[in-house]
Amino acid sequence: ATAAQTATDTHRTVAVAHRGASAYAPENTLASIDAAHELGIRWVENDVQRTKDGELVILHDNTLARTTNVEQVFPDRAPWNVADFTLHEIEKLDAGSWFDPEFKGERVPTFEDYMDEVENNGQKLLMELKSPELYPGIEVQALAELDHAGWLNRSHVKRRLIIQSFNADTIKTVHTVRPDIKTGFLGNPSVADLPKYAEYCDQINPHHKAVTSDYIAAVHGLRGPHHRPMELYTWTIDDGPTAVKVADLGVDGIITNKPDVVRDALEGS
Ligand code: G3P
Ligand code: CA
C-alpha cells in the first residue's frame, strides 16, 4: 500500500464543500449547496453575517460588492457593507450573475432558508461565524436561530453541525452557551498554546500551508471538550495531489471549492 492508502484505510479524510461547491456555483448560495448535494457531498461550509436590521444572512465578504450586483442597484451606498443594508434591500440583489449568467436570480440566502436547504438535502454544516467582532451578540443569535431551525436536537448536534470562527472568544462563547456543540478554531495556534484551545475547541482548522505531520500529531494528542481526540480540518485545497499529500499527513478534513475532485483523489489514492 502507498502511504495514501495506509492513511485513508485507517483514517478517513472528509471533503467539505467550501462556501458550497463554489467552483461550480456561486459561493454561499442555495445553488452552491445544491451543487454539492448533486455531487454526493454531505459536508458544506458557509459564512454567517448580519444585516443592518439584525437578520442573519450567508455571505463571505464583509461587503456585498464582489458577489452581488449591489453596485448597480445601490450605486450611492459604497462601500456596500452588509451591515449597512436591510434584509429587504439585500433580497433585491442578484448573487448569481457575477459567477455565471446561468445563475441569474440567485439570492443572498437568509439563515433560515439556507438551513432549510441543508436540512432538505440531508447535508451537514461546518458553519463559520464570520467577522463576529462586527456583530455583537451574533453567537447567541445564531444559536437561537439554529434551535428555531431544529438543528440543536441531539442527533443534529452529534452528527451534523460544527461551528467555527477565526475569533477565539466567539468559539468560547458558543461553547459556554451550548457545550454540546462541536466547535473549531480557524488558525494555527502554537503547539504550546493548543491545550488552552482544547478546553473549548474540538477542532483546530489551519491554512494548509501551516500543516505538518508534527502539528497534526500535537492536535490529535489532545482531547477536546467532548473527551475525544481533537481533529484538524484544513483549507482551501482544490487539486487532487495536494489533497492526497495532506491526507497522508493525517488531516481529518479538507475544505475545498472542488469537493468532487478532492473526494475522488482521496478515494483513488
Ligand atoms: O473554512 C475555512 C475557510 O472558509 C476560512 O477562510 O476566508 O474562506 O472564510 P475563508
Ligand atoms: Ca469560511
UniProtKB/TrEMBL annotation:
Biological source species: Streptomyces piniterrae
Source superkingdom: Bacteria
Listed name of the protein: Glycerophosphodiester phosphodiesterase
Sorted UniProt keywords: Signal
SUPFAM superfamilies: PLC-like phosphodiesterases (SSF51695)
Xref: InterPro entries: GP_PDE_dom, PLC-like_Pdiesterase_TIM-brl
Keyword Transit peptide in record: no
Domain GP-PDE as annotated: residue spans: 13-266
Coiled coil: none
Gene Ontology BP, a term: lipid metabolic process
A Pfam family recorded for this sequence: GDPD
Lineage: Bacteria, Bacillati, Actinomycetota, Actinomycetes, Kitasatosporales
One GO molecular-function entry: phosphoric diester hydrolase activity
